[in-house]
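Good morning N.,

You mentioned wanting to compare the apo and holo forms, so I went ahead and generated the holo version with flavin-adenine dinucleotide. This is what I fed in:
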Amino acid sequence: MTESLWAEECDVLVVGSGGGALVGAYVAGHEGLAVTVVEATDKFGGTTAYSGGGMWLPCNAVLRRAGDNDTMEAARSYFRAVVGDRTPRELQDAFLDNGAPLIDYLERDEHFAFEVLPWPDYFGLAPESRAGGRHIVPLGMRGSTLGDLRDELRPPLPTERRGHPLPRWVSGGQALIGRLLLALSEQPSTTLYRNSVCDELVLENGAVVGAVVVRDGKRTKIKARRGVLIASGGFENNAEMRKRWGVPGDTKDSMGPGGNMGAAISAAIKIGADTDLMGEAWWSPGITHPDGTSTFSLWFTGGIFVNDAGERFTNESMAYDRIGRDIIDAVNDGSLSMPYWMIYDDREGEVPPVQASNVPMAESADYVHTGLRHTADTLEALAALIGVPGPALEATVERFNKQAEIGTDEDFHRGEEAYDKAFVPEGGSALVPISQGPFHAAAFGLSDLGTKGGLRTDPHARVLDAAGSPIPGLYAAGNSMAAVSGTTYPGGGNPIAASVVFGYLAALDMAGGKD
Ligand SMILES: Cc1cc2nc3c(=O)[nH]c(=O)nc-3n(C[C@H](O)[C@H](O)[C@H](O)COP(=O)(O)OP(=O)(O)OC[C@H]3O[C@@H](n4cnc5c(N)ncnc54)[C@H](O)[C@@H]3O)c2cc1C
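and this is what came out, ligand included:
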């Protein structure tokens, strides 16, 4: 294939259409470059379109205008304390120092507008952690503002996976991608293609000079004069890659859309790109639905998780990735099997106290019929239904209730960090006793928001080879790159923030590059 002529040419070829890809495309186009975007599926937006659209970008103008008194020194201390030395300092600095300039860049264009959404940092005890977070979201807008582009935008999860009607108001990640698509539609030198999978990179004299894209079954060779930006998400839906790299969890429980198969990451590995953090993902507990999937769940207003011995194993109010890592540890040490159970009482009724399952829950009866939800008058009877020792479950609940009474969780410190309390109603507690029968158990699994191991990059988002040298013409951002956050999830909005910042840096580097 590679010996044939170029079918198309551009300056910058962007692979994928999530936040980092479209920011990269926007910035490259704005800097005067001709851009081609190729998206594998029939919709633009990737996981970003499902998301809250939150971005952790310390000290940006939106936060500043709202009176935020954070400093870059504080943000750096926090990020370093959480991430440690698992990723290079220069990469961390590139991420931290370029969030605010990116927002300045975008806000010069009236298509972009953001607001603060206070969201506590995920490690509340780390130095310089902020209870109000460092988090902004795009302003929502009427769906009709998008016109025909709405049909090309990946719909939100309730619509895509449960058939709910499209909301009239576009918000969160929908608004982020919507705004980017609107801006790109006015950029004359940018072309966007759907149903186009990039699965091969073209190398000439050690430099990436283009790529092969499979569009409607036909292989097309696209020349990229300045470079190729791989911002095509993770490989969460590729079972073979997950197995090969040892990523805990299952494709069916991943939140990423179907196109996130890692084809472009594999193409880069094939031409000598180095990788890092390949066994990593952004994890979460996931409520298990009758269709067998377990989806990213947060905002618990009660309940405890128990392991096979009927004992608690985590702080259930912690940030989801931290709970996910406790789940993985417990599975690895043999104390937890799937499904594991959330135990809760009847104060909110039979539906588990999970306020955000991201994919809406089905009818209650369907969980009961599929054995994913059990109810009993006593904890002992409930324990028998879920296969854990009755006396142990009774003792666990008794101890938890005593701790709830005194307001201190001596075992897992639930309720002690700002994030733990973020979803607690006014005057309430993160420690809600389990005392009002009947008692219920809901099945849970391990979900992920996508993998986060990928191509190793330098601070300009240039992909590195095994010797640590940049491969000319090749860039990566978002979940396609080895995450700057390493093995942690420092705060809500980190995944998209890293995607958009490195997409921006890649585009600026290509704009500064020579012909
Ligand atoms: C419900 C939910 C809420 C979330 N909320 C937040 C939040 O508020 N803030 C936050 O930071 N994170 C959030 N996340 C996580 C975040 O959405 C993702 O980690 C992030 O959007 C990934 O962005 P990306 O740019 O790497 O890739 P994606 O947005 O996943 O985009 C990748 C795109 O590339 C395409 N693609 C893949 N391979 C190819 C190929 N070979 N050729 C062409 N195209 C290809 C895919 O089809 C896809 O469209 C949330 C996740 C979920 C599920």
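The CA atoms of residues 154 and 160 lie 8 Å apart.

Happy to go through it together on a call whenever suits you.

Best,
F.
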